[in-house]
Design goal:
The chain is an alpha/beta fold. It is built from 8 helices and 10 strands.
């Protein structure tokens, strides 16, 4: 039987790359990097061999999709931020059997979803950026699931999260599951972007984000899941927060009683709200 050893909401801000370069922003995202490195440490300590990533940078406009390739290999430059992420080489073993199992179980729950075995289907940076810090030795297998879903129902993403849990538990995997995306995600207007690399685009978004983190750390997930659809819309949640809905589905939705542990304190980046948080799993 398989198991889930870690579940987390993680940041993938490209300014982590900028933080590692000499210049005025050197070190500015060290706390975010440290949070991802701590997740790496915990994965190693618990013997995690597979990483499942809900990627809010993989846009899909119809259906849900899983990249179930046997191997991911390439050199990535971001179309969105080529000045931040360029020529990033990657080479990870995939988890195709797990991807197929997730799709089969989710279809049984009424979700329109496909698992793809296509060598030229590349990874997006919502997967690649966290893996740079969490899986630098390429030891763990990877499964990437699209979570930028603008025309989809959060309820379906909830079912996908349930399917991921069931598929992992029926497998031989020891898995960590990562919801890769921001909290609020209203990026600064273009002419304000350079000056606003470390700020929020509206104080309202910060206040709602902070309330959400209070609910998470207090274990009040009935309240959080009730507000999630409106939160995703009103605060421009990244990918409409389908990654978070998938994570909540995996954890048990409103029945989840754990209390989130914040590894990286809330920070603002280019107008958005960010965090690294781990969600304890029942023994």
């Amino acid at each position: 039987m398989g198991k889930i050893s870690l579940a987390a909401k993680v940041t993938h801000v490209p300014s982590m790359f900028l933080s590692e370069l000499p210049g005025q922003h050197h070190g500015c995202r060290q706390s975010a990097i440290d949070g991802l490195i701590e997740i790496r440490r915990r994965c190693a300590a618990t013997g995690v061999d597979t990483l499942v990533v809900f990627d809010t940078h993989w846009l899909v406009n119809s259906g849900f999709h899983i990249n179930a390739s046997a191997r991911y290999q390439g050199i990535y430059t971001s179309n969105e931020f080529p000045q931040f992420i360029q020529n990033l080489a990657y080479d990870y073993e995939g988890a195709p059997a797990l991807g197929d199992a997730v799709a089969q179980i989710a279809r049984g729950k009424g979700v329109r979803i496909e698992a793809h075995h296509v060598d030229t289907l590349e990874l997006e940076y919502g997967t690649l950026v966290p893996l740079k810090y969490i899986n630098p030795d390429h030891r763990m297998k990877v499964l990437s699931i699209a979570a930028w879903c603008p025309w989809h129902e959060l309820e379906d993403s909830r079912r996908i999260g349930e399917a991921v849990r069931e598929a992992i538990e029926a497998s031989g995997c020891n898995a960590a599951v990562l919801a890769s995306g921001s909290l609020s995600h209203r990026i600064h207007d273009n002419n304000e972007a350079q000056a606003g690399i470390h700020t929020i685009s509206n104080e309202f978004y910060r206040q709602v984000d902070k309330r959400v983190l209070d609910l998470w750390t207090q274990g009040r997930f009935g309240e959080f899941t009730a507000m999630l659809p409106e939160y995703a819309r009103a605060c421009h949640g990244e990918g409409l927060m389908h990654d978070t809905a998938m994570l909540m589905g995996l954890l048990g939705w409103d029945k989840y009683t754990g209390k989130a542990e914040i590894l990286t304190d809330y920070f603002t980046s280019s107008g958005t709200g960010q965090v690294n948080a781990v969600f304890p799993l029942a023994a």
